[in-house]
Write a structure and sequence with these properties.
InterPro entries: FAD-dep_OxRdtase, FAD/NAD-bd_sf, Squalene_epoxidase, Squalene_monox. Belongs to the squalene monooxygenase family. It is a multi-pass membrane protein. The chain has helices spanning 4-41, 53-64, 89-97, 145-157, 278-287, 297-306, 347-362, 371-384, 386-402, 409-423, 427-436, 443-462, 468-491, 500-514, and strands spanning 46-49, 69-73, 86-87, 110-112, 114-119, 122-127, 140-142, 162-175, 178-186, 191-195, 198-201, 219-230, 239-243, 250-256, 259-267, 313-319, 330-332. By secondary structure, it is an alpha/beta fold. The strands form 3 sheets. Strands 10-9-8-2-1-11-17 form a 7-stranded mixed sheet. It has a 7-stranded mixed sheet with strand order 6-5-13-14-15-12-16. β8 and β9 (178-186) form a beta hairpin. The longest helix is centred in the first third of the chain and has 38 residues, at 4-41. It binds flavin-adenine dinucleotide. The site of flavin-adenine dinucleotide has 35 residues, from α2, β2, β8, β16 and α7.
């Protein structure tokens, strides 16, 4: 009798445990059944990780071709950041190819018609020229990146075969070397698995997933420090103002009808602290005096600082060459795949160009579960993208190195030579501007321009009277230029593209695959 309560308690605990064991087993079986069901049904054709510019555009393009797309994005709120604020004319063309050009409307974007350059009191404005072979108006757009991203997300989500969900992808699910899907945490904190024959990783410049797929590493080159000056309008709001300041460049541009973005680039190893006010002192004392008084550039630069730097932000500039991922069932795109210095503002354009190519390559395939076929197509994608990616990556890398101010006479000669070349305003400048705007992705033409800039720089250093010292420095310019170019010839697989017949074939192939 005394132990009756103990037996009752034991019986209760045992019943509770058996009940829960049965429940857990049922849930596990149910999960597996649901997964198997999803796989059998082929409920999703493509999973896209990340809905930035690349992920959202790709989702729309693939869904338009009838694919069932599941996009998983970590944060569906409007991104507040200062990258991707100039959509080059070439990027607008790619958006039009994808049926997304209207996403540039109703976001108070500003027309970008020219590049204005400033150095040591001299100034030149270089319009993006009208290239007759380019089927689009040669005008880009200056904008708030977050607004564009939201428009792209809305447009993708408006299609019934796109499921856009907030969630953070934790890992890829792999079976025998083939990626089958992802594990992610949804907004309710539940861990979920999703399966599809193809997963596209578009999780941006801080990508974690990339590391398990490709073995390339990113390099931090410098930092861009930026803030917005509110209630302001530049006297020339349609130019991107690039100041050849020291040690690195400043850039000022209109991003909405009454907001101006001010950016200063700072070396990676000496970035002043934002939190203790060092940064505002640096901007006010070191950078502001170098901003030309032309128009109202300096006034707006200072106004932003004096109004208390509401939201000063810094972003790392990175470079990472593209590497082919040899796993099946997965593709990496956007910044997770390939990055370059943002000095020529072309990352979004390259990502969109990649999407146009990939979409056109995948179009004839009714079933993406043929992973061997998809993997072969990805190999040709990697080659076809070269005219655009190699041209833009090389130009960005060389410009970013040339624009660094140093006390080295040869390097300063090249910096001045670059300014002189751009400021001439002749047919050569126009040619380089069409490359810059993404209207002529032609590596061979770029190499010719780079050779011409080198010769201009050498000529500048030798004039008016060549001396042995000047001659020596001009030879150093040549050596430096060859070294920079040489590195890219190898890295970007440029060599074969420089053979004129190959270059022409590459370009034809590129145009055919980017045009709907
Ligand atoms: C300072 C700076 C200035 C730039 N200026 C320009 C410019 O003017 N013009 C231009 O064309 N390019 C510019 N670029 C480059 C451009 O911003 C990028 O190339 C472009 O934004 C890349 O798009 P993306 O979709 O690959 O990445 P993002 O736009 O970064 O999108 C990645 C998305 O993935 C999501 N995500 C990340 N991890 C996960 C996860 N685990 N699960 C789910 N979602 C995830 C993120 O939330 C994000 O929405 C600039 C770059 C820098 C650094």
């Amino acid at each position: 009798m005394t132990y009756a309560w103990l037996w009752t308690l034991l019986a209760f605990v045992l019943t509770w445990m058996v009940f829960h064991l049965i429940k857990m087993k049922k849930a596990a079986t149910g999960d597996l059944e649901a997964e198997a069901e999803a796989r059998r049904d082929g409920a999703t054709d493509v999973i896209i990780v990340g809905a930035g510019v690349a992920g959202a555009s790709l989702a729309y393009a693939l869904a338009k071709d009838g694919r069932r797309v599941h996009v998983i994005e970590r944060d569906l709120k409007e991104p507040q950041r200062f990258m991707g604020e100039l959509m080059q004319a070439g990027g607008r063309f790619m958006l039009a190819q994808l049926g997304l050009e209207d996403c540039l409307e109703d976001i108070d974007a500003q027309e970008a018609k020219s590049l204005a350059i400033y150095k040591d009191g001299k100034h030149a404005t270089l319009p993006f020229p009208d290239d007759k072979s380019f089927p689009h108006e040669p005008v880009g757009r200056l904008l708030r990146n977050g607004r564009l991203v939201q428009r792209l997300r809305q447009k993708a989500a408006s299609l019934s075969n796109v499921q856009l969900e907030e969630g953070t992808v934790k890992s890829l699910i792999e079976e025998e070397g083939v990626v089958k899907g992802v594990t992610y945490k949804n907004s309710a904190g539940e861990e979920i698995t999703a399966f599809a024959p193809l997963t596209v990783v578009c999780d941006g410049c801080y990508s974690n997933l990339r590391r398990s797929l490709v073995d390339n590493t990113e390099e931090v080159l410098s930092y861009m420090v930026g803030y917005v000056t509110k209630n302001s309008r530049l006297e020339d709001p349609h130019s991107l103002h690039l100041i050849f300041s020291k040690p690195l460049v400043c850039v000022i541009y209109q991003i909405t009808s009454d907001e101006v973005r001010c950016v200063a680039e700072v070396p990676a190893d000496s970035i002043p602290s934002i939190s203790n006010g060092e940064m505002s002192t640096f901007l006010k004392k070191s950078m502001a005096p170098q901003i030309p008084e032309t128009g109202n550039l300096r006034e707006i630069f200072l106004k932003g600082i004096e109004e208390g730097l509401p939201e000063i932000k810094s972003t790392a500039t990175k470079s990472m060459s593209s590497r082919l991922c040899d796993k099946r069932g997965v593709i990496v795109l956007g910044d997770a795949f390939n990055m370059r210095h943002p000095i020529i503002a072309s990352g979004m354009m390259v990502a969109l160009s990649d999407i146009c190519i990939l979409r056109n390559l995948l179009k004839p395939l009714p079933n993406l579960s043929n992973t061997k076929k998809v993997s072969d197509l990805v190999k040709s994608f990697y080659i076809i993208r070269k005219p655009m990616s190699a041209t833009v990556n090389t130009l960005a890398s060389i410009f970013s190195q040339v624009l660094v101010a140093t006390t080295d006479e040869a390097r300063e000669g090249m910096r001045q030579g670059c300014f002189n070349y751009l400021a001439r305003g002749d047919f050569k400048t126009r040619g380089l501007m069409t490359i810059l705007g993404g209207m002529n992705p032609h590596p061979l033409t770029l190499v010719l321009h780079l050779v011409a800039i080198t010769l201009t720089s050498m000529g500048h250093l030798l004039s008016p009277f060549p001396s042995p010292r000047r001659f020596w420095h001009s030879l150093r310019i040549l050596a430096w230029a060859l070294q920079m170019l040489g590195a890219h010839l190898v890295d970007e697989g440029f060599k074969e593209m420089l053979i004129p017949t190959n270059a022409a074939a590459y370009r034809r192939n590129y145009i055919a695959t980017t045009t709907v």
